[in-house]
Amino acid sequence: MAHTENRAIRRVLRREIAGTIGLLTDEHDFIAMRRYRTFAFDDHTAYLQQVEHLLKTLAAQGSHTTVALFDPQEYADYCAEGGLEPDAPASRTRFTAELAATGATVPYEGQPLAELVPELVDEAVRQAAWQYATTVLAHLGSCASCGEDIGRAAFAQASRLLTRILDTASPGHRHLVCSVSAAPETLVAVLHADQDPDGTTRIDETEALEFTSVLALGIATHSAGGLVMRTTAPGTADRVYGWRLRGERLEPLTAAEVFDAYCTDIESGDLVSPESDVDYCAPPDLGIDTDPTGHSH
After folding, report:
1. Is the pLDDT of residue 67 over 50?
2. Please, which of 48, 59, 104, 135 could form a disulfide with 69 given CB 3.0 to 4.6 Å?
3. How far apart, in whole angstroms, are the C-alpha atoms of residue 174 and residue 229?
4. List of residues 6+ apart from 123 with CB closer than 8 A
């Protein structure tokens, strides 16, 4: 009787434990892990199928599972820094536990792996962009003319610009994209915002922090970049408009420039049909002056 009760208790406890699975989304990364004798998989497709089966099984048991992006090079560095044996399941488990706290993760909510993998990769790219932006901003130092911390000033200016963009936007759902040209590749940040009936704007604080950091990087380094806003509200056509980044300022794009950007294939340069019920327009006046003194970092 006691043995049966213990098993029941253990089943209940398993439902209370949140777990993390480190996923090798890319076949190249999968092949890199095969050099370890204790890594028991030899086919990437079969490996993904088994992971999906495991996720479904855990979900059916009432367990919450987070999927983390497992990078073989980061794993090797982690083992070297910690003096761990990389060819050991225990080391992979410790690394995965670390990813749960600091790495790119996505909660498993029953979605097919074909949907989860792109979401996980996007999350990793987003996190890498934010980390790169914050690292650069932190090491820019002080302005030679005024002594102000350049990164901190750029972040403050980016925050002011974002606030004005949201304050002047049409009611409804707002989808804002910021892109900044940086080495080795362009950084992209996305922000979603909704407006309540009382006019209150609701945003995800993490998204806002990441978005502001990427915009601040463009401002601080005077990099080429731009922002595009799309607003959606019931009963009205979507509105699309944007700005190009000029130093510490945002320069409005004309309606024609926005139309050209949206209706041109990025890779081929060919024209594509415009969307129906979309108004490509000039942005509202932000009513903000970057620096009346003309001083620029």
Report:
1. yes
2. 104
3. 7
4. 69, 104, 105, 106
Q: What average pLDDT does the structure give for the chain? A: 84
CB atoms within 10 A of CB 7: 10
Task: At 187, list the tokens.
Answer: 């950084």
**What distance in Å separates the CA atoms of residue 232 and residue 277, rounded to the nearest whole number?**
11
Q: Long-range contacts for 193-201 (Cβ within 8 Å, ≥24 apart)?
A: 193/166, 193/169, 195/171, 199/171, 201/166, 201/167
User: What is the number of alpha carbons within 13 Å of residue 258 lying toward its C-beta?
Assistant: 21
Please give the structure tokens belonging to residue 123.
């999350």
Residue with tokens 């949907």: 115
* Spatial CB neighbours of 112, under 8 Å, sequence gap ≥ 6: 52
Reported pTM: 0.75
Residue 213 structure tokens: 């950091």
Question: Are residues 190 and 177 in contact, defined by beta-carbon separation less than 8 angstroms?
Answer: yes
Quickly tell me which residue has 């294939």 as its tokens.
Answer: 265
Angle (CA) 269-217-133 rounded to 5° is: 100
The letter for the amino acid at 39 is F
By the 8 A CB rule, do 286 and 278 touch?
no
Please write the tens of the pLDDT for every residue from 250-295. Answer: 999 999 888 887 776 655 556 677 777 888 999 998 876 544 445 5
Q: Is there a contact between 283 and 240 (Cβ–Cβ < 8 Å)?
A: no
